[in-house]
UniProtKB/TrEMBL annotation:
Domain of life: Bacteria
Classification of source organism: Bacteria, Bacillati, Bacillota, Clostridia, Lachnospirales
Region (Disordered): 412-507
Signal peptide boundaries: 1-23
Biased composition (Low complexity): 420-436
Species assigned in the record: Coprococcus hominis
Residue intervals passing through the bilayer: 511-532
Protein name (record): Ig-like domain-containing protein
Length: 537
């Protein structure tokens, strides 16, 4: 029994906690609602009544808050401000603000009104607005001003002479072929940052023509599309004509700059190679897909377009439709140069003299011994150089790249007084011959050495173990002969017989005797080789 009672108490506790938590959660959800949209005085999210508009005086002092636009407009006095606290929408078919001047501060929010009627001036600022605005005070100086506003208008009927003024605002008015919609204004003023776009207005721009053409829409002539014009008829109306001369029913009024996102500017080609002539690429400009005409819509001015580097063309708008300017850059590359030709050299007369030279050069060239470090040439001849390889090229300049290098060889004069005369080089990057006699001598020497090597290889004989003893016998005999020769050679004139001294034998006779001994040794050696060969057989 006790267990049942305890279970009942616990279950009741859980139920109470859940009920409290649920109620508290709902309260928190309602309190956390940000009222993203207030429609006809109630939040579309939580359905609570919300005061979404504050009425302030001209100094910004609050005078009261209201949940509906029509209530706030009726309560406001002349010169007061209607300030949005939340995004606000009124579905009332008609809101009458009366005969007073008002400001609607959108406060970076959005206001939707089906029909807002006022008989004084109206300023709408700092946010988004949509709906129909009307002022029927014909002949009065009241003005409708949009400042920092993005607006979608279903209709606009501003009969007062003060007209419409746009400041940094973008207004679109979509009529979509309705049977009757108004686009009525006596005057229109725009700054260069604003856009006013009308689509499918059945009657086009209409008014009473209370002002002259210049007073009414003369200030927007520079905002007209290409081909559109202003038309004024005294005591009738001032309006806009399209390209066909018909009253414009669709028009986008904007200050068209050549720097707008809708502009495409291209040039071709975008690079050239320097040749000393001015370079002027073809310029193509389109605005909203429309090709502009040079001379009519714009002019071109070319700068720095002869020498290598960055050139530019400035495209400047011409006429009343397009404005400003834009710049496109292109490049002129340096031109290549051919390597120097016709260079001549003079040999160095002796090692260390440094009196070799390279002629037929000029100050536009430079030379190097390793093609890494280059020295400028300051005259028509490079003097004071040693024998060796040199490279000569044209220097890089503002308009030309450095040329390829021509290899030039300055040689050493041969010891027997070979030529040191000038020799002409023949081709680029090819070693130039400066001494034909020296080259011939080198080739002859090389040939002799080759032949000597060949003869030596033929005469050389490889010994074997079978003939080693016999070879050693022959060698011993040869050594004895050599020893005898050495002893004979070491005798002085004092040791020589008197009859040899008297006969006047000279050093040359000694040389002949040594030569004979050497011949005997060679003969003995050859005889030994013959004996060995016979024994092998």
């Amino acid at each position: 029994m006790r267990k049942r009672i305890l279970g009942t108490i616990i279950a009741a506790g859980f139920f109470a906690v859940a009920a409290f938590a649920g109620a508290n959660g709902l309260a928190e959800t309602q309190a956390a609602c940000e009222h993203s949209q207030v429609k006809d005085g109630a939040c579309v999210d939580c359905n609570d009544p919300v005061e979404c508009i504050e009425v302030e005086d001209a100094s910004g002092t609050a005078k009261g808050t209201y949940s509906k636009l029509e209530d706030a407009a009726a309560a406001a006095g002349n010169g007061d401000i209607l300030k949005l606290l939340y995004n606000c929408e009124s579905t009332s078919t008609y809101i009458d603000a009366g005969n007073k001047n008002l400001t609607i501060d959108l406060n970076k929010k959005e206001l939707k009104a089906v029909h807002f009627d006022i008989m004084g001036s109206l300023v709408i600022e700092n946010g988004e607005y949509s709906g129909y605005i009307r002022n029927a005070a014909t002949g009065n100086e009241h003005t409708l001003t949009f400042e920092n506003v993005r607006a979608d208008l279903t209709q606009l009927g501003w009969y007062a002479k003060g007209g419409i003024k746009l400041v940094n605002s973008n207004i679109e008015q979509q009529h979509d072929g309705a049977a009757f919609t108004e686009w009525w204004l006596e005057k229109l003023q725009m700054d260069q940052t604003s856009v006013y776009k009308i689509t499918n207005s059945p009657s086009g721009l209409s008014n009473y023509g209370l002002l002259s053409l210049d007073e009414a829409v003369g200030g927007i002539e520079e905002f007209l599309p290409a081909g559109y014009t202003l038309d004024g008829q005294p005591n009738s109306y001032n309006t806009i004509l399209d390209e066909t001369g018909t009253k414009a029913r669709s028009v986008e009024l904007r200050y068209r700059r050549l720097t707008d996102a809708t502009v495409s500017v291209s040039i071709a080609p975008t690079s050239y190679v320097y040749d000393g002539k001015a370079k002027e690429p073809t310029v193509t400009v389109t605005y909203d897909g429309r090709d502009l005409t040079e001379g009519t819509d714009y002019t071109c001015t070319f700068t720095d377009n002869i020498n290598a580097g960055t050139a530019s063309v400035k495209i400047t708008a011409k006429g009343k439709t397009y404005h400003g300017e834009t710049v496109k850059n292109y490049t002129i590359d340096k031109a290549p140069q051919t390597a120097p030709t016709g260079l001549t050299t003079k040999n160095e007369s002796a090692k260390g003299k440094k009196d070799g030279s390279i002629k037929n050069v000029d100050v536009s060239m430079e030379y190097s011994v390793d093609q890494n470090v280059w020295k400028p040439i300051t005259a028509n001849t490079i003097t004071g150089i040693s024998a060796g390889d040199y490279y000569v090229r044209y220097k890089e300049t503002a308009n030309y790249y450095a040329s390829g290098a021509t290899k030039v060889t300055v040689k050493m004069s041969v010891p027997d007084g070979g030529t040191t005369e000038d020799v002409t080089t023949e081709s680029v990057t090819t070693e130039a011959s400066t001494d034909a006699t020296t080259e011939d001598t080198t080739e002859a020497t090389t040939t002799t050495e080759d032949r000597t090597d060949d003869t030596t290889e033929d005469v050389t004989t490889e010994s074997t173990d079978d003939t080693q003893d016999e070879t050693e016998d022959v060698t011993t005999e040869s050594e004895e002969v050599v020893s005898t020769e050495d002893q004979t050679t070491e005798k002085t004139d004092a040791d020589k017989p008197d009859d040899q001294k008297n006969t006047g034998v000279k050093t040359g006779d000694d040389f002949a005797m040594k030569t004979a001994v050497a011949g005997m040794i060679i003969s003995l050696g050859l005889a030994g080789i013959v004996v060995i060969n016979k024994r092998r057989k």
